[in-house]
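Troubleshooting: if your tokenizer reports a length mismatch, compare your output against this known-good record of 195 residues.
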Amino acid sequence: MLARRILWGRAQHRSAFVDRYLGGLTGIEIGGAAHNDYGLDALNVDRFGEMDTIYKQEEWRLSGRKRPVDVVAPGDDLPFADGAFDFVFASHVIEHLADPIRALQEWIRVARKYVILVVPHPDRTFDRGRELTTTAELLDRHERGATAETEGHWSVWTHESFLGLCSDLGVEVVDSLDPDDKVGNGFMVVIDASR
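Known-good structure output:
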């Protein structure tokens, strides 16, 4: 059974899976949102500092609040030293980055212990029916230094295809869960950043 807690007068589900790895640790959350709060001891890093973006408006619509941004920086170019935090956490973020390989490398660089991702599963989101993104396509984007010029999901993975990407890149996955234990529309992956 999922633990619940009250945040700003609203019940929030916790993720036992995430808490098992990140409880008691400090880190950063990339693009943290008020309506999907994991209750982590983390700075919120976002590419926008303004509180009137479409993302902040959606937070307000869904939860009646907007999560403050602590550090303004692109999610794949962080202003922190190597191993500066215990963890990097990103829920429903990596698919928005044109070069997710660069993002993974950056998150592993900054984390001492773990990188935990929650990735939308196409069978449980509006990405249903879209073609899966291949490692070859991502390597091509990475080599070209691709950047996102439009908003949206640049990449689509299933649990299995994302684990395959990690294997292809030599990224060590220590655990995963499909479906995720918070909302259920994605899957969770724990990456070992200690190497």
